[in-house]
Amino acid sequence: MKHAILFLVSIFCFNSINASLPEPTLSAAATKTEQQAILKKLGRRPDFFLPWRCESIRSVILERVQLSSDRKTLKLYCNVGLAQIAIRQELLDRWADAVREKLGEAYRNCAVRFYAYNIPAERFIPNYFREKNARDPRRESTPSDRRPLVRRTDRPLYGRGLAGRHIALWGGHGRYYHEEEDSVWKWQRPALFCTIEDLNTQEFTSRYLAPMLENAGAAVVMARERDPQPEEIVIDNDRSTGNARMETTGNWTEHPGGFLWQDTIHTENPFREGTVLQAGIASGIKPEITYRPRLERPGEYGVYVSWKASPGNLTNARYTVYHAGGKAEFEVNQRIGGSMWVWLGHFALDSTSKIVLSAPDNANAGTLSADAVKIGGGMGNIARAGAVSGVSRYEEAARYWMQYGGVPDSVYAQETLSPDNKDRKQLDYIDNFKGNGDWCNYIRKQKRIPLDLALGLHTDAGICDSIVGTLTIHYTDRCRTNYTNGKSKLAGRDLADLVQTQIVHDLRAKYDPAWTRRSMYDKSYAEISRPDMPAILVEMFSHQNANDMAIALDPAFRFDMARAIYKGILRFLADRYGRNYTVQPLPPSALKAELVGGDSVRLSWEATKDPLEPTAAPNRYRVYRRIGTDGAFDEGREVRFPEIRMPLKRDGKPYSYRVTALNEGGESFPSEIVSAGLAVDEKGRALVVNGFTRVGPPALKKDGNGKILGLDLEADPGVPYIRDRAIVGPQQDFNPLSPFEDNDRPGWGASSTESAGRGIAGNTFDYAVRHGAALLANGLSFESSSCTAFEQTLPVPSKYRLIDIIMGAQCSYPSRYSIYNQSLINRLEELLEAQVPVVISGSYIGSDPDIPADAKKLLGYRCAERIPTPYDTRDDLYRTPAFDRLQPTQDGCVVAADYLPTTGVRHGRSFLFGFPLEILNDNSLQDLFKQILSSL
User: 23: pLDDT confidence band, cut at 50, 70 and 90?
Assistant: First the structure.
């Protein structure tokens, strides 16, 4: 209001004044009249501020000026809008030049300085962007020399990454108990554009950002359950679930203050209800505990461990996870982080899996502590009014995970809201946004985990005709306060600036050149004002705006958003601690697995260049192997060059491989998967090509003018990366004029929630193994290739009895994907001329609008119609809402067979199917290849 009044006063007082500036002299005193004339000349909103207005919800407004008596310095005092934009020295220099030009020759030597909060604008420049002699030492710090909470000992120490760093992380909101009116469990945010903020932020944090930080070497502590697995097994000395059990070796004694599992928890702290085991380390028999979960359902499970911290505990206690593919080794510091769930990782576990706690071989003193091990995320078991939420713990708000994880209620329970406590019925709701900040301090001070920073991911509300964009929030109390260690809270603003700068830079380069850089708020929000460390919130985009949501569900966008945040964090911590950094690489590309002789396979691939990050080049790789169709990947082997030859048994089993890229900054996400296998009684060889590389958001629904109305799951549900648990149901309201009333009636974008928590399956990049197994069953050895590698090199035609090209749900939406590019058409033309049998299958191979006409002519088919399919609702396979009914278009082309409600077309020695062969069960897929081979 104060700024608004000043603005109105400026209009009435100065707009009618047309006087010229007095000619200043070196000896003249700066008068109030002269300062007012300068202000009038420049205007409250100078033109040079205009390009930066979009960055702040408040326009940058010039409020007053101050000219020194010697006329050598002119100070321009601006409103809070100046403090909310990205300040750089070159920007201030440019503004100062514009001021001097505007004021005229008499001021050409005047030093011009800008202020916000009565603070020089130079102070808002992050240290990262300053010259060495202009850095603020109060934003620099020394990293903790404490041994990290947890680290993998069978992985490199990423010295130019985040090794030794500890990061608190959470995604906004989650399901909570609402007592005020209806006494029900409900989502904190409305279901809009097929998702809910409560789950969408979890997708960003758990699937993308947390793994990136951990791949760089960081230990990530999360305020919400991160494992979506609804099954849970607890193994404990007090009480285990199911058939799980503990086996001890050595002299263990029982002590109070440990975890006790209960199927329903009310107000109890489960880490105070049970007991914990302890054993001294001495010569002779070393203490050891084996935790056996005895899983009935093999699958992917998160593994948590726990202990009771004590000054005499080992700082290098060893946990070894024996999973379906091998073993993973961890070292934990048991002097910190006790009586809480400590994350080790996701693993493929089966009935033989186990977790072993032991002391290192060279340990000869100290104490080993053992409490419960938790496998899987599980279902929520914190009761309100006698009832639990009924959803997985992954879907619940942070407040319930904190209670289950041993946090005292004094940290997360807000008991004194107002003198009359009239808001008591909303306590759970308030806990969810106030508890996170206090939790960070609890983790750092009471648990002694040396957190380096805290970050919460949210999405914002707001509707506009373009992109709402990205907002960051920090807290400096207008630069008036410091952290308890005396360091400046402007370090938090630096973090907010670096993260937002990276996000906007990367998204403008890859998605929208006009991606909006919003404000950097300095706000007293509990999530970031209470932590005694640099802490920020990132409002990534607007969940209420159709233009933002048109790309927000795109897995590639999620990856790039998370990667930008990770890079911002990496740069901030490297700068704060005076370290060099390297960004972890992108996943390798152009994989292929080639059979060599009769006893080995040659794998080759290419490094993926990151055009946005020159340091992200790999210098070595890790190759992972899996045996069979139901096996799990091993822990991999490190190689220096993008090629390796590995032995291969002639046992009729498919062997699969994936590759990650490494450098001094960390490990990339995995590549797509290629497979190979040798038939016991070989009757020939086949090549399987994976052309299904698509991941993308649901189809857009637009009006006649091209305006985006929303997302249409029925037309095309999109293709998630592996699985998307943030998709909650189809959009129901496509009317831009529908107003928001409340969370139950949110207006435009309103969506149903029948899929909440379950989500939909996506592209696993792992289909060559099933096709290959079917070929092996027909006596054909096989090798496989990514489509990129296949396009680059023509296979030797005489080498193969069959080439099988998987197109799955590949189509030209988003536009970065295609079915037949010119390189692939060239390869197909060469193969058909050589009379090599080719099988092509996929949901859009006839109907995709961007298929070149010469491809259809070459293959001799067209799409007669699209046929809806009941397979759209399968929980274990990407969705295929419709198939292509193919029709021959040339002489010599015939309907090869009827499958499901569609057909296959044969053209010479090529076979085309307008549906993904992956929807067939194993026996049907084997029979199909048998028929094809017998017809040749």
Answer: very low
457-469 pLDDT, tens per residue?
A: 999 999 998 999 9
Instruction: Read off the DSSP letter of residue 331.
Output: E
**Which tokens is 417 given?**
């809201």
Q: pLDDT > 90: what percent of the chain?
A: 81
pLDDT tens per residue, range 677-718: 999 999 999 999 999 999 999 999 999 999 999 999 999 999
| The pLDDT of residue 14 | 35
User: What secondary structure letter does DSSP report for 197?
Assistant: H
The model's pLDDT over 606-645, given as tens digits with 9 standing for 90+, comes to 999 999 999 999 999 999 999 999 999 999 999 999 999 9
User: Which CATH superfamily groups domain 156-223+426-577?
Assistant: Zn-dependent exopeptidases (3.40.630.40)
Residue type, 643: E
Q: Where are the beta strands (DSSP E) in 585-734?
A: 589-596, 600-606, 620-627, 637-639, 643-647, 655-663, 666-667, 674-676, 685-690, 699-702, 708-712, 723-724
Q: Cβ-count burial of 422 within 10 angstroms (0-12 exposed, 13-18 middle, 19+ buried)?
A: exposed
- Count of CA atoms in the C-beta half-sphere (13 A) of 696: 23
Structure token digits, residue 285: 């028999």
Sequence-distant (6+) residues with CB within 8 A of 572 are 128, 453, 494, 495, 498, 499, 534
Is 2-125 assigned to CATH 3.30.1370?
A: no
- What is the DSSP annotation of 900-926? TTEEEEEETTEEEESS-GGGS-HHHHH
What are all long-range contacts of 5-8, with beta carbons under 8 Å and residues at least 24 apart?
6/61, 6/63, 7/44, 7/61
pLDDT of 77: 97
Which residues have C-beta within 8 Å of that of residue 318, sequence separation ≥ 6?
153, 329, 330, 331, 332, 357, 358, 359, 360
Q: Given this chain, do its domains 2-125 and 233-375 carry the same CATH topology?
A: no
Neighbouring C-beta atoms of residue 9, cutoff 10 Å: 11
As a residue count, the chain comes to 936
Question: Quick one: pLDDT at residue 781?
Answer: 98
Residue 160 amino acid letter: R
**Alpha carbons 572 and 576: distance in angstroms, whole number:** 6
Q: Torsion angle of alpha carbons 24, 28, 34, 35, nearest 10°?
A: 110
Whether the full predicted model's pTM is greater than 0.90, yes or no, is yes
Q: State how far the alpha carbon of 424 is from the alpha carbons of 397, 401, 413, 419, 429, in Å.
A: 18, 21, 11, 11, 10
Phi, psi of 573 (to 5 degrees): -70, -40
- For the chain, give every domain's residue range: 2-125, 156-223+426-577, 233-375
Could you give the C-alpha distances from 88 to 131, 505, 799, 862, in angstroms and in order?
11, 15, 61, 57
Per-residue pLDDT band for 385 (boundaries 50, 70, 90) equals confident
What letter represents residue 319's amino acid? Answer: Y
Predicted confidence band of residue 58 (pLDDT cuts 50, 70, 90):
low
Q: Ramachandran region of residue 257, left (φ > 0), alpha (ψ -120 to 50) or beta?
A: left
Task: Give the fold, CATH level 3, of 233-375.
Answer: Jelly Rolls (2.60.120)
- Pick the closest to residue 305 from 281, 280, 279, 271 (CA basis): 271
- Nearest alpha carbon to residue 537 among 483, 488, 491, 500: 500
Closest CA to 916 of 930, 927, 902: 902
Instruction: Please give the radius of gyration of the chain, using alpha carbons only, rounded to the nearest integer.
Output: 31
